[in-house]
Specification:
The protein contains 11 helices and 8 strands. The protein is α/β, with parallel strands linked by helices.
Length: 276
């Protein structure tokens, strides 16, 4: 049983309808990944709106070359840990690879991540027919869904690597159609990853639900980074779309606070973090 952190100052909880209100009011959404209670507490203390327990933990925590080895049990474990560090920050958890292979498995995964681990929303990649069906089934059972389009890491082998999506007009039109489809299926939020700035802007303007970008330019309704990238501790080359916010600062709290401030002021991502 998860126990929410009770030591942080009172703050009105961020809710799923609240994210829509933020889009309508032009207030940018700040999202960061977290994989344990201690870092979750740092996100909570900095006033981050959304904590994402991403299957990126397979790479930055477990040391794999992709997100594919992450299991549902891993996700439940880390989501429950993060939940213990939060009080008002909205908690989103990834459905890991193949947990959406059919609606029954997607519902089982969603039920565990929400009911057992304490997530408020689950994230699912892509917009294939079975994914749209799963989104509808989850939403019908009161499990909010965040869609994930563009560079979807679980499709790394299909893409031939972590490649930017939607550069050509036909591909861009397809991603836009997918955004409309996941919205129609009932998704409440969309993560847009690894796509040209102009495409992310088209999608953000075309849908009524909020968009959160990672490598998708400044025109999304919010921004997300992998916490390890933000802190400059990810091994190897840092992704173009990320920034080391710890550089020149003396604490993790200051780095997270700087990220949140830069997102809300619209100065991150800068042109050097974007794709055209």
């Amino acid at each position: 049983m998860y126990v929410h952190n009770a030591s942080t100052p009172d703050r009105k909880p961020v809710t799923v309808p609240g994210l829509r209100a933020m889009k309508a009011e032009g207030r940018r959404i700040v999202m960061l990944t977290a994989y344990d209670a201690s870092f979750a507490f740092q996100l909570e203390s900095a006033g981050v709106d959304v904590a994402l327990v991403g299957d990126s933990l397979g790479m930055v925590v477990q040391g794999h070359a992709s997100t594919l080895p992450v299991t549902l049990d891993h996700m439940v474990y880390h989501t429950a840990a993060v939940a213990r560090g939060l009080r008002s920050t909205l908690l989103v958890a990834d459905l890991p690879f193949m947990s959406d292979r059919d609606t029954a498995h997607a519902l089982e995964a969603g039920a565990r991540l929400v009911g057992e681990a304490g997530a408020a929303m689950v994230k699912i990649e892509g917009a294939a027919p079975h994914v749209l069906e799963a989104i509808g089934a989850l939403v019908a059972r009161a499990i909010p869904v965040c869609a994930h389009l563009g560079l979807t890491p679980q499709s790394v082998h299909k893409f031939g690597g972590f490649r930017i999506q939607g550069r050509e007009q036909e591909a861009a039109d397809r991603v836009l159609a997918e955004a409309r489809a996941v919205e129609a299926a009932g998704a409440d939020l969309i993560v847009l990853e690894g796509m040209p700035t102009t495409l992310a802007q088209r999608i953000t303007e075309a849908v009524s639900i909020p968009t959160v970008g990672i490598g998708a330019g400044p025109h999304c309704d919010g921004q997300v980074l992998v916490l390890h990238d933000l802190l400059g501790v990810t091994p190897g080359k840092r992704p173009k779309f990320s920034k080391d916010f710890l550089l020149g600062r003396d604490s993790v709290a200051a780095a997270i606070g700087a990220f949140a401030d830069d997102v809300r002021r619209g100065v991150f991502p800068a042109p050097e973090h974007c794709f055209n």
